[in-house]
């Protein structure tokens, strides 16, 4: 399948989200205040006067460039959300490009505010997601160029490049600000750290192992 067809296929996948909107908060929390001088606008950003909008407000060239995968995970996610494309504000959609080195991993994580549809452009990815309690069922698939896989909103999911060459994927997400919670970093790299008593009991490991994991450098992927 030619690259142009793959790109068109990916765009169609993104377009499926265009009718969606954000039914829930676009931030982690919103603390009520009485004095509006210290307040912020929630569920989006302040809007520019439509008469002052330009084509650049709806444009972003950052997904042309491969991400730097020279890190311990061998992957890099390049976002194209409302922070990069102001025109996405209130439209309920965003994109990412994900680059993978050979055997690179986009580690288990969740998007608290978005479903994700991922399309592979290059390489071979092993992907999957896990359902919520009590089943904790794993849905997994090996993807090839042109394949698409959907990760439901809020569920833990991952992608692993099982090939000896680099891989590239694009994904559409059903929120202008989907958020991302990397599981390992959130648990073992929180600031301040979660008590090692809590983590030792939760994971059924000794405190020395907790201390070791908390001492690691956790990337932002």
TrEMBL record:
Q: Name one GO molecular function term.
A: manganese ion binding
The residue range of the signal peptide is 1-20
Where, by residue number, does oxalate bind? 106, 111, 116
Which cysteine pairs are covalently linked by disulfides here?
A: 30-47
Q: Where does Mn(2+) bind?
A: 109, 111, 116, 157
Kindly give the InterPro entries that the UniProt entry links to this protein.
Answer: Cupin_1, Germin, RmlC-like_jellyroll, RmlC_Cupin_sf
What keywords are annotated for this sequence in UniProt? Apoplast, Disulfide bond, Manganese, Metal-binding, Secreted, Signal
Q: What is its main location?
A: secreted
Location(s) in or outside the cell: Secreted, Extracellular space, Apoplast
Domain Cupin type-1: residue ranges: 61-211
**Record Pfam families:** Cupin_1 (PF00190)
| Classification via CDD domains | cupin_OxOx
Annotated Gene Ontology cellular component terms: apoplast
On the tree of life, the source organism's domain of life is Eukaryota
Family indicated by similarity = Belongs to the germin family.
Record PANTHER family: GERMIN-LIKE PROTEIN SUBFAMILY 3 MEMBER 3 (PTHR31238)
State what protein this is by name: Germin-like protein
Q: What organism is this sequence from?
A: Coptis chinensis
């Amino acid at each position: 399948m030619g690259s142009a067809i793959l790109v068109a296929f990916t765009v169609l996948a993104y377009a499926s989200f265009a009718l969606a909107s954000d039914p829930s908060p676009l931030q982690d929390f919103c603390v009520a205040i009485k004095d509006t001088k210290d307040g912020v606008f929630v569920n989006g950003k302040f809007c520019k006067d439509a008469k002052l909008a330009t084509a650049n407000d709806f444009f972003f060239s950052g997904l042309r460039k491969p991400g730097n995968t020279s890190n311990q995970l061998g992957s890099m996610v390049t976002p194209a959300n409302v922070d990069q494309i102001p025109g996405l504000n209130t439209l309920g959609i965003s994109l990412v490009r994900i680059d993978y080195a050979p055997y690179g991993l986009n580690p288990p994580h969740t998007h608290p505010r978005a479903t994700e549809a991922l399309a592979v452009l290059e390489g071979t990815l092993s992907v999957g997601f896990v359902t919520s309690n009590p089943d904790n069922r794993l849905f997994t698939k090996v993807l090839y160029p042109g394949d698409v896989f959907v990760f439901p909103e809020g569920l833990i999911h991952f992608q692993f490049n099982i090939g000896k060459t680099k891989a590239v994927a694009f994904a559409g997400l059903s929120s202008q600000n989907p958020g991302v919670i990397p599981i390992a970093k959130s648990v073992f790299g929180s600031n301040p750290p979660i008590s090692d008593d809590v983590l030792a009991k939760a994971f059924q490991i000794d405190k020395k192992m907790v201390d070791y994991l908390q001492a690691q450098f956790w990337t932002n992927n």
